[in-house]
Amino acid sequence: MRRAYKYAVLTAMIVSTLALALAVSAGGLGYALPFPAVRNLAYWYLKTTYNPFMPKFTASAPEAVTAIVWDYRGLDTLFETSVFFLAIIASMALMRGIDVRVPKSINLNKYGMSAIVKTVTKITVAVILAASASIALHGQLTPGGGFQGGATAAVAPLVIIVIFSLYFAVGSGVKKKSMLTLRTLGLLGIGVTSFAVVVAGLILGKATYIFQNQPKEAAPVGFPSHILGVPMGGTLLLFNVFEFLAVAAGFTIVFLLLSVPEESVRRVLGGGEEHD
Amino acid sequence: MIDVNTFLFSVLVFSLIMNLGISLYGIFWRPSLVKKIIALTILGDTANVLAIVVGYRAWIAPNRPPIPPVLTTWKPTAADLSRFSSLAVDPLPQALVLTAVVIGLAVTVFLVFLTIQVYRLHGTTDVRKIAKLKG
Amino acid sequence: MISPETLVFGVLAALGLISMVATFMAVMERDLLKAVLFSAVQSTAYAFMFYILMAPDILLVYVPVAVGLYPAVILFLIKKTERFEGGEEG
Predict the structure, then answer these.
(1) B45-81 in b/e burial notation, b at 16+ Cβ within 10 A?
(2) Which of B2, B3, B19 is best to mutate for the C interface (most C CBs within 10 A)?
């Protein structure tokens, strides 16, 4: 009886997925092929993202997606960053008390992989860090940005932990506390940048609003949009740099927590539970 | 009978929704916690691809594909701007999918740590065995 | 011969089918290591789809996250827990 019930539910799932797939692809979304015109909201965003004919109404960033993420919809990104921070804090709370103790006299050459792999890794890590910093810095001009650069830069500590060893990483200062400090600095930078124009407006006595980037019609204080003829995006550049720092440090914390060997965990958990 | 482009686009949407169904089966029917996490990441990624597919734009001429929403000149004329807004893909779903990818990553990292803790305390990652334990 | 539009849509349809096959094999496989590798193949197919659908920002996020970080984190998890689904019978 349980068997028949299980197979009935399974068949129902398969049939309903097939029917839904056929319905959506044959025109259930309202069309079978995409439309040749975008929606009104997207048309408005595309028109005003870099428009030198409307200086009081534009976001001054040639890249529409970064402008939407940090300027038009900056509050969404603020809450997304806080969700990510909460996940890292929760993981650290789950793994509290478990710390890596590096023995005093340790021969680091015995740990890790062979010399060929280590040499190649030294070159690759430098390339990874340079490429990710480049991706984060030009986020307001070409596709890129803070989170893209941070996720790419997070591959470097993973590679170091796996190929050299965890003791090497902890021994050269990449500890949980220092990475948490870096992450907090990045988040503080984001907070300060979002309030920077408000403080300037309060000093000058003009009306402003939080997360403001460019001067607007009723709030005429803002960041300069071009520096030496290059569009700098105002707050977008600062947001990208701080987000890059915060994301790379956050992922490093995750990898440091994940690569603790199980023996030191069993010591903390009380000598190992009896598993049956 | 039916247009070739419509048929090929329907094949794409059909395979994406079948991916949704297969990953849902993986979440419900597979007893290992690790397999459930893998299927959950597939589900989230497929939803993101569906959002980007909705934001795509049709070709206005057989050799004018749509362009990404990035303006490539720093001194645009009015003709540049109107050409850009008539050819570029919708940028709003891309911004929302960026947020969704980050949030999915945060949830997955937290689930991985929870699974490690469950294994350390109970010695198994099989949900059938865990359900039989009492507390 | 074939117009560029048909070619692009054909490549998208082929990538969709590849991702469907990879997802099916990832869910049905009992060895979790191979399941993670199939999931990485499916993520690569999705990354190509993002490129052809003109979303370069999402591509730059998706390639390190889904092809690099997800398999790395789940491989750490498999190392610390069991490798085969349903115990070590293989």
Answers:
(1) bbbbbbbbbebbbebeeeeebbebbbbeeeebeeeeb
(2) B19
Identity of the amino acid at A166: L
3-state SS of chain B? CCCHHHHHHHHHHHHHHHHHHHHHHHHHHCCEHHHHHHHHHHHHHHHHHHHHHHCCCCCCECCECCECCECCCCCCCHHHHHHHHHHECCCHHHHHHHHHHHHHHHHHHHHHHHHHHHHHHHCCCEHHHHHHCCC
> Cβ distance A245 to A149 under 8 Å?
no
Domains in chain B with CATH codes? 4-55+90-132 (1.10.287.3510)
Q: pLDDT tens digits for A206-222?
A: 888 888 888 888 888 88
Angstroms from B40 CA to nearest CA on chain C: 11
pLDDT tens-digit series, residues A45-91 = 999 888 888 888 888 888 999 999 998 998 999 999 999 999 999 99
Q: What residues of chain A, 35 to 74, have a C-beta less than 8 Å from chain C?
A: 63, 65-66
Q: Residues B43, B49, B55, B61: is their CA dihedral positive or negative?
A: negative
| B114 CB-contact burial (10 Å; exposed 0-12 / middle 13-18 / buried 19+) | middle
Quote the ipTM score.
0.93
Q: Which two tokens stand for residue B76?
A: 């645009």
Tell me if residue C83 falls in helix, strand or coil: coil
Q: Give pLDDT tens digits for C62-82.
A: 999 999 999 999 999 999 888
Closest chain C residue to A145, measured at CA: C57
Mean local confidence (pLDDT), C21-37: 94
Q: What is the identity of the amino acid at C68?
A: G
With contacts defined as CB-CB under 8 Å, which chain B residues touch A32? 6, 9-10
Residue B73 distance to chain C (closest CA, Å) = 18
Judge contact between C45 and C15, C-beta under 8 A.
Answer: yes
Candidates A15, A20, A31, A46, partner chain B, best to mutate (most B CBs within 10 A): A46
* Mean predicted lDDT score pLDDT of chain B: 90
Q: pTM for the full model?
A: 0.91
- What gap in Å lies between CA C62 and CA A148, rounded to an integer? 8
pLDDT at residue number B58: 87
Measured between CB atoms, which of C57, C68, C76 is closest to A258?
Answer: C76
d(C-alpha B27, C-alpha A18), whole Å? 18
